[in-house]
What we know:
By secondary structure, the chain is mainly alpha-helical. The chain has helices at residues 3-9, 31-34, 61-67, 73-82, 87-98, 104-132; strands spanning 37-41, 56-60.
Amino acid sequence: MTKKEKIFNKFNGKCCICGVELVKFHKNMGEDYKRMFTIDHIKPISLGGSNDIDNLRPMCQRCNSIRNNKAGERRIKIIKDRKYIKDYEMKFIIDDICNGLITKSDIQELKEELLNIYEDTLNKIDTLSVNLFK
Ligand SMILES: [Zn+2]
């Protein structure tokens, strides 16, 4: 079995993030392309990750393009600057925590940021509903 095949089989031919059934070759640029098998570095090369099979896993093209190089600290910084979090980003954050890419203080910072983001939203909802449902 080639290294590529071993990686493909690690999650039974499924994406390690979203679980979609991966296609090895895509026929068009539509749905097949999004489900295309790509190889992800658990710890990115840019953060000192290696090309060892232990650091590689199967990911669909869609998740891989979202993950990009934005692991760990970098993702947290983006969320903080942007002041909101997208649903799928939670998956990547949990994934980063599982893979040790986020330090304890990063996690604390992220939690505070999430509380801020949701507190703002909840306050807006409160203000709006007070005015709407007088
Ligand atoms: Zn995926």
